[in-house]
């Protein structure tokens, strides 16, 4: 039992917090605070999302008719390239880890900051620089290689390949710095008593992601430098005209870019593990299976890059092996889905906005994951490779997966970050628009692809027009949904009603700090508890929030429903 | 709109044709190309392995539907059954861990995955390996056209096949990556610059089908589409197709190139000279002093011409100079055809397709041995380059000319161009 004033200071809405402890632009530009860096990252990646989303809307508008003249071919090619490159390198890869992870990770550990705050800020400025180079590419002739930069087209095209690849190179370092920081932080800065198996699952997934980031990204960096060297000096490694091998580039590129798919989806899965358990108020089912499945995905993800090259003429033995290993990645992903469902069993399921996103995630990621089976099987992949089927598949995973989880996670931690609640009704409307718009956009693309519609086509056979039109309508609905969702959040950050430390009865450590958190994250030493022991939290009427049993008035505390888990 | 919604659900053949005919359109493929409407998920099915691909697709589809329906049903049930009413938070206790259950749902789906992998690999073997007697058609992909060269040297810009005759496509690219995709055959193979790739086709249905490039290749990628026509018989193919006629078969041109470039060191009677004899090497396993042994195929010969010292046949020393930049890709094609002919060709075959034109060409340039090789090469696509540049030293330049003129020819009507060639040659003679 603590004094009411002290309790309010610890668990109430904090008037003095990391947002207003210092002011002026320098206090943000030179901040070493992981929360401020996370917020700057969030603003940055949201900007990248809107830019690349704008390209997507232009593309979809162009594809309304089969022989559209809205864009000429060259402009269309630039649009889809920039859409892909900005989305992948500047938005999806940093989205959940660098924006959300940066804010949440140290607090989940009960730490003051990440292990290397300066490296963290450096990572953000590298993101700025890398994205800046992508912009320079747009100004200096654009980019029309596709985000994959396949040689030899990327060697001979006149567009700004060097600017863009250099941008991606720098963004790679930004990603490595974040990953390195997270690895060291999780290893060395856990709260006393916080063993590996008391980490929230979000941290397991961020840890697995970080391993991929620091092991795979250097390969991309080298590959892109070699591409630049090939363009400027004709070193003859990728260009067949000088004795190089264009397929070698594909191997190098996918050695990074396939694990990068897991950089995109693993943190999202971590977010969903948190959301499902908090909004069901149930201990996560099969904690260790989910934790190890993240690590398994990270490791297996290094061994399947060749499945992007089944049609490239690589040897038959290699192709068979890659197909077999590809199927093995399906298992840990499926295990997670089953565990999430089992978590909801006998829970107390709230359909608040974050849970709506989590349920959308299971639905969309389910489709995205299952359609991967068609592409892992060799004979069907030959038909579906480089068609709209593939486009639909990876959008279901990356948008239906990562973007949905990012939004769900933002809604979940928003009251923690800003100490203010969003409008739950509008949040759910936004979620519904995102969900339905997304399905409308991409489901027709599966049918188109299976019927033989190749990807990256500026004009197409008229029989596909009806599918493209549905897809275009869906894209606009999706766009409106995303704008609404971010609008609701932005409004809440300024005008939302103030809330206390833990409005959702979550149990992980970050909810023990005030909302918004103090500059040092915690005013008191956080009390280590099990991140999924929701019964440890009790409602406090004065603060209208949930606090730990230890701090509550003993007379008002209800008895424990389940024994403490060991 | 409702009408369109129905179309989305099921487009019948009639509806599809109607959709197309309503739009005054300019697609690459004539209306007849889509007269065999497919099913909901697939385009028309016209190759031997298409049914297997489709049935595997449907097997996976139903497995997915089963799991997805299960997942969504469970999710909806749980949300409704255990939804929170008001602010009352009262989860019921239940276990959060059950090792056997978790192992079961990890292992049982794996069995299905192994099955899918197995079926996919099996079907893929059938798509990869062409039988020995397959007709060999050479494909040259370049921005943004397709060129198909048939065993008799004829050239077309659409792919023409004969019903039930297996075909092996030997493909190369002049510039960047392309990919040869025929949806109706469920077949797709990348065309990679700097090497040969192979595709096996086995058409089982007469008709016209789409052939598209599916590897992004620049501005006109989406217009790099042509047609694949399956003819009822060889006669039908020969008579109804608009060909660019050739005078000599490719191997005959290759023989002339061989005499000019290779015969100093390589024998074709089985005698080892500075280099090994080349008459019997095709399809054989070669052993090397500095590399693993391999079977002689297009890629090996190409590499030996361009990078001769990468693999030295056992018992020989590295004496050959690279022909990189001296022989064009088209000429290397012809040399390969010649070496292949030496082993498996018909010895009675004289390699001349159009005796009159050949006689005219011989008469015109009989005094210049080097010129013969030139014109033979040139005449297949453009008579002029050979006639004007008969000197041996211009070998290299002429090779380029052939490529360029090929480009020019494709932009015009192929028959008209072919006729012009012939008449020009005749008048020259």
Compose a concise summary of this entry.
The complex is a heterodimer of chains A (566) and B (429). By secondary structure, chain A is an all-alpha fold.
Written description of the protein model:
The complex is a heterodimer of chains A (566) and B (429). The mean pLDDT of chain A is 92. Chain A is globular. In chain A, strand 1 and strand 2 form a beta hairpin. Chain A has a two-stranded antiparallel sheet with strand order 1-2. Chain A has 566 residues and is an all-alpha fold. The two termini of chain A are 25 Å apart. Chain A contains 16 helices and two strands. Chain B is elongated, with a radius of gyration of 28 Å. In chain B, helix 3 (50-81) packs antiparallel against helix 4 (99-128). Chain B contains 13 helices and twelve strands. Chain B has helices spanning 2-9, 13-22, 50-81, 99-128, 234-240, 250-261, 298-306, 329-344, 355-365, 369-379, 383-388, 395-411, 414-428; strands at residues 135-142, 145-149, 155-156, 159-162, 167-173, 178-182, 187-191, 197-201, 207-213, 225-231, 285-286, 294-295. Helix content of chain B is 43%, strand content 14%. By secondary structure, chain B is α+β, with helices and mostly antiparallel strands. The interface between A and B is large, with 105 and 101 residues.
Number of helices of chain A: 16
Mean pLDDT of chain B: 77
Outline the low-pLDDT stretches of chain A. Answer: none
The helix content of chain B, as a percent range, equals 40-55%
- Give the N-to-C terminal Cα separation of chain B: 66 Å
Low-pLDDT runs of chain B: 1-11, 22-28, 366-429
Q: Helix count of chain B, per DSSP? A: 13
Number of strands of chain B: 12
- Rg from alpha-carbon coordinates of chain A: 24 Å
Q: Which percent band covers the strand fraction of chain A?
A: under 5%
Overall shape of chain A: globular
How would you name the oligomeric state of the polypeptide chains in this document?
heterodimer
């Amino acid at each position: 039992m603590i004094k009411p004033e002290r309790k309010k200071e610890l668990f109430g809405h904090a008037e003095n917090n990391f947002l207003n402890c210092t002011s002026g632009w320098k206090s943000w530009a030179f901040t070493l605070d992981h929360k401020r860096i996370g917020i700057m990252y969030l603003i940055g990646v949201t900007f990248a999302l809107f830019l690349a989303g704008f390209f997507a809307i232009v593309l979809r508008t162009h594809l309304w008719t089969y022989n559209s003249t809205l864009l000429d071919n060259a402009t269309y090619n630039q649009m889809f390239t920039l859409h892909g490159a900005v989305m992948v390198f500047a938005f999806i890869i940093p989205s959940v880890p660098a924006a959300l992870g940066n804010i949440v990770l140290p607090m989940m550990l009960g730490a003051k900051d990440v292990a290397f705050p300066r490296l963290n800020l450096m990572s953000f400025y590298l993101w700025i620089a890398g994205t800046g180079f992508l912009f320079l590419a747009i100004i200096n002739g654009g980019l029309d290689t596709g985000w994959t930069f396949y040689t030899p087209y990327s060697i001979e095209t006149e567009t700004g390949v060097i600017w863009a690849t250099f941008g991606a190179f720098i963004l790679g370092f930004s990603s490595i710095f974040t990953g390195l920081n997270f690895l060291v932080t999780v290893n060395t800065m856990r709260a006393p008593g916080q063993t590996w198996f008391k980490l929230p699952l979000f941290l397991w997934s961020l840890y697995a992601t970080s391993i991929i980031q620091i092991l795979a990204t250097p390969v991309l960096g080298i590959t892109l430098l070699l591409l630049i060297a090939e363009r400027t000096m004709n070193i003859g490694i990728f260009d067949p005209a000088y004795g190089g091998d264009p397929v070698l580039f594909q191997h190098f590129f996918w050695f990074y870019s396939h694990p990068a798919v897991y950089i995109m989806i693993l943190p999202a899965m971590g977010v969903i593990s948190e959301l499902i358990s908090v909004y069901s108020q149930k201990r996560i089912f099969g904690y260790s299976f989910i934790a190890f499945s993240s690590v398994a995905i990270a490791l297996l993800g290094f061994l399947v890059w060749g499945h992007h090259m089944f049609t490239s003429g690589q040897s038959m033995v290699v192709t068979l092996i890659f197909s077999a290993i590809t199927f093995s990645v399906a298992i840990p992903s499926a295990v997670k889905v089953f565990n999430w469902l089992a978590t909801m069993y006998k829970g107390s399921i709230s359909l608040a906005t974050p849970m709506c996103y989590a349920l959308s995630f299971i639905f969309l990621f389910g489709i995205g994951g299952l359609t991967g089976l068609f592409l892992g099987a060799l004979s069907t992949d030959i038909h579906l490779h480089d068609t709209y089927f593939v486009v639909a598949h990876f959008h279901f995973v990356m948008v239906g997966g990562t973007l949905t989880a990012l939004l769900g996670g933002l809604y979940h931690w928003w009251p923690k970050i800003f100490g203010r609640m969003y409008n739950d009704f509008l949040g759910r409307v936004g979620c519904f628009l995102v969900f339905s718009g997304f399905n409308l956009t991409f489901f027709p693309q599966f049918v188109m692809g299976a019927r033989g519609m190749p990807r990256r086509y500026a004009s197409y056979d008229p029989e596909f027009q009806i599918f493209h039109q549905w897809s275009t309508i869906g894209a606009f609905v999706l766009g409106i949904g995303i704008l609404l969702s971010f609008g609701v959040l932005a409004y809440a950050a300024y005008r939302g009603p103030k809330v206390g430390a833990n409005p959702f009865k979550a149990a992980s450590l970050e909810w023990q700090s005030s909302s918004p958190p103090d500059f040092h994250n915690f005013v008191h030493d956080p009390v280590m508890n099990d991140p999924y022991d929701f019964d440890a939290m009790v409602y406090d009427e004065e603060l209208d929030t949930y606090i730990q049993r230890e701090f509550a008035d003993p007379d008002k505390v209800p008895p424990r429903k389940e024994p403490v888990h060991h | 709109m409702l009408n369109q919604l129905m179309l989305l659900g099921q487009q019948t053949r009639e509806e599809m044709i109607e959709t197309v005919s309503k739009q005054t359109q300019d697609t690459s493929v004539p209306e007849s190309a889509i007269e065999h409407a497919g099913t909901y998920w697939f385009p028309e099915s016209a190759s031997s392995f298409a049914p297997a691909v489709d049935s595997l697709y449907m097997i996976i589809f139903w497995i997915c539907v089963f799991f997805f329906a299960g997942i969504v049903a469970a999710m909806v049930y749980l949300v409704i059954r255990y939804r929170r009413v008001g602010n009352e938070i009262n989860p019921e206790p239940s276990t959060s861990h059950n090792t056997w259950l978790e192992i079961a749902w990890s292992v049982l789906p794996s069995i299905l995955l192994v099955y899918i992998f197995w079926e996919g690999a099996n079907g893929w073997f059938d798509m990869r390996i062409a039988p020995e007697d397959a007709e060999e058609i050479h494909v040259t992909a370049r921005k943004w056209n397709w060129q198909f060269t048939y065993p008799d040297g004829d050239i077309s810009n659409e792919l023409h096949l004969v019903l039930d005759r297996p075909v092996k496509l030997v493909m190369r690219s002049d510039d960047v990556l392309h990919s040869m995709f025929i949806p109706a055959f469920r077949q797709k193979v990348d065309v990679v610059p700097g090497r040969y790739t192979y595709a096996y086709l086995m058409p089982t249905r007469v008709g016209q089908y789409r052939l598209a490039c599916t590897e992004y290749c620049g501005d006109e990628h989406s217009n790099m589409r042509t047609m694949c026509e399956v003819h009822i018989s060889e006669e039908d193919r020969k008579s109804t197709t608009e060909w660019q006629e050739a005078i000599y078969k490719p191997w005959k041109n290759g023989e002339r190139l061989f005499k000019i470039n290779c015969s100093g060191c390589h024998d074709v009677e089985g005698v080892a000279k500075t280099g090994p004899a080349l008459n019997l090497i095709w399809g054989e396993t070669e052993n090397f002093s500095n590399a693993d042994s391999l079977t002689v195929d297009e890629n090996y010969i190409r590499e030996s011409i361009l990078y001769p010292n990468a693999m030295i046949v056992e018992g020989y020393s590295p004496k050959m100079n690279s022909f990189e930049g001296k022989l064009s890709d088209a000429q290397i094609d012809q040399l390969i055809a010649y070496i292949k002919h030496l082993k498996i060709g018909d010895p009675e075959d004289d390699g001349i397709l159009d005796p009159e034109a050949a006689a005219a060409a011989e008469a015109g340039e009989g005094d210049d041995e080097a010129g013969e090789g030139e014109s033979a090469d040139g005449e297949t696509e453009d008579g002029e380059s050979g006639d004007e540049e008969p000197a041996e030293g211009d070998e290299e330049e002429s090779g380029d000319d052939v490529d360029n003129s090929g480009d020019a020819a494709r932009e015009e009507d192929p028959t008209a161009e072919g006729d012009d060639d012939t008449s020009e040659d005749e008048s020259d003679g």
